[in-house]
Design a protein that fits this description.
This protein is 55% helix and 10% strand. The chain contains eight helices and four strands; from the N terminus they run αββααβααβααα. The strands form two sheets. The chain has a two-stranded antiparallel ribbon. Strands 3-4 form a two-stranded parallel sheet.
Amino acid sequence: MTQGKRLLDLAVVLILTLLLWPVVLIIALVILIRDGRPVFFLSERMKTRDEAFQLVKFRTMTQDPDDGLASGGHKTGRITPTGRVLRRYRLDEIPQLWNILKGDISFVGPRPPLRRYVEMYPDLYGAVLRNRPGLTGLATLVFHEREAHLMDACHTAAESEAVYTRRCVPVKARLDLIYGRNRSACYDVMLMVATILGRPPRRPPGRT
């Protein structure tokens, strides 16, 4: 991660923290009152092919100690009523500001994968994770809705695993590598704005 990218991350994190701390407090209290503890969900993700960290989200599901696969339709029954609202507006991801502050992830980059998939495709993720993982990114903006549609149609863990590894991983990786080839401060800002507006980004500025 370049120094300029890191400074941009820190500046935006500080601004968002000042703006969103009341929202974080309210959401935490609602989860605590309606669903109990824990308020936060920790998931091991990979920063590089060999380095892991704990990604933080608001908890949106009932707990399952054996939950280590991609989320598909077979997990729908575990989503709490509070969690459905948080997921709809992606409010469950606000705690990842802490991960950005720590330097685990950036605002823009490939979504950090589970260790399982990095071990399944070490060369592919070795290339993808040359760029610091991000809260949002090209793959998130372009493929998120399609991925959700594919995964929601899965009714078993085995089906979810097959669909994710065969139909989602290759597409997301290809988009992440496109981002890596076009990465710039201007492109990062464009992707951040596109995330706020909820629409796919245009062509990278200054690129053909």
